[in-house]
Amino acid sequence: MEHQKTPRLILFTDIGDTIIDEGTEIRDESGTVIHADCIPGARETALRLYETGYRIVMVADGTVQSFANTMRENGLDRIFAARVISEAVGEEKPSQRMFGEAMASLGLTEADKARILMIGNNVARDIAGANRFGIRSVLLTWSKRRSFEASSPDEVPTYRIAAPKELIPLLARLEEEAAG
Ligand SMILES: [Mg+2]
Fold first, then answer.
1. Which residues have a beta carbon within 5 Å of ligand 1, which is an ion?
2. Residue whose C-alpha is closest to residue 137's, from 59, 21, 49, 52
3. Which pTM does this prediction carry?
């Protein structure tokens, strides 16, 4: 087996329609998500990245309990180094506070921004939020629930993938480039 070097890149990730298929969500009467399935390939990709040594931070809009439920149900509890959730922060993406808290959760500083990638499906929240914060963005276009058209330069992603598993070769390429 080939020895794998500790990854240099740090991953921030959205959940809804990035890891979880929002079309499968079932909510209780209070609106808490009590069941949801992953997007095909998302669970395997997330686990593989975690096992490779990537530090992964959840940066998601919703309630703490909803994400606790769906991550536990899908066996993704252990992959997150930290969870930054809008309910707890009091603001939603593209709020810069969401991204700032994600950096702080890992003790990262300005100098680390070049190593961070934000993955999401929403150009107004995930992509614009990341771009304004000064980190690179990856748009996942698997879900067709919303438009991917950028209404401002802020909403143009750095990279674009059509399926979760495409993240693996993208990261391999970026790690290689970073290693020079
Ligand atoms: Mg989303």
1. 14, 16-17, 121-122
2. 59
3. 0.96
